[in-house]
Design goal:
7 helices; binds adenosine-5'-triphosphate
Length: 289
Amino acid sequence: MAYLEMDNVSIGFGPPSNRTEVLTDVNLSVEENEFVAVIGFSGSGKSTLMSLLAGLQRPDKGEVRLHGSVIEEPGPRLGIMFQNYSLLPWLSVFGNIELAVKQVFPKFTASELKKHVEHYVEMVSLTPALEKKPHELSGGMRQRVSLARTLAMKPEVLLLDEPLSALDALTRAVLQDEIIRIWEEDKRTVVMITNDVDEATLMADRIVPLTIGPSATLAQEFPVTMERPRDRANLNKNPEFMKLKNSVTRFMVGMNKESKELRVDNTIQMPDIKPYDFMPPTRTSVVVK
Ligand SMILES: Nc1ncnc2c1ncn2[C@@H]1O[C@H](COP(=O)(O)OP(=O)(O)OP(=O)(O)O)[C@@H](O)[C@H]1O
């Protein structure tokens, strides 16, 4: 039995007359302490897949299970970090993280709570912004608060939906290393969505592409067997990295091309007629008796 499983999961939205099937027959088995990266194109259903794993949405068909039990609702064992940060605007950086930590660790004393929150704020290099409100922060800073909040709750499973997409390359590299360090030290299980093949190859044990929707599903997976720790500075000289990166990229590009070729041409051919019935009457056509 896998630790975290999606078993023939399908989900769609909308009424029967105008329904979009977003995910169809998705199967995913994640082992405990594994790091899985899901990559896919925009709009293919990646966030929907994350919401299903987090228990925020229930599938129309199939089951999502943690330790063999069906996930029916969100809970502290599953920590999700959303793409859109979802911070409370009236609370400071400290307040946003504190609120989440209090819910998971209600027995923390005031000083334990403060120390814990400050530790995670420090980890994402936001100590100088501790008392700032979300509107005073850049997109990248908000993303870091959101990451710190998820990590501070110490969930068994980290569900990261494009956690680093709003960051500049340098900050992104620092936080990639930080996520790997936390994953290795605390022995968490991670499912991370990314559209960056380099990032997936650097961080994950396995890369699973999501096909292009509608009715997207998980495609042939790519195991990442490179030894850890992975040397970021020399990755582009590592033949294993380059080979895997090229294979994944080729697969994604091929899938995109195939989907464009298969796309039905919905253009309606209009008959070649002139709508003269709607023309205003000309002077000569008006007959006065
Ligand atoms: N609650 C909903 N109601 C109706 N349609 C939805 C809902 N949630 C998602 N969808 C549709 O499902 C499809 C997939 O959306 P989703 O956000 O999962 O994609 P994504 O791969 O995460 O996209 P992006 O990378 O652009 O964030 C889209 O067509 C979206 O409009």
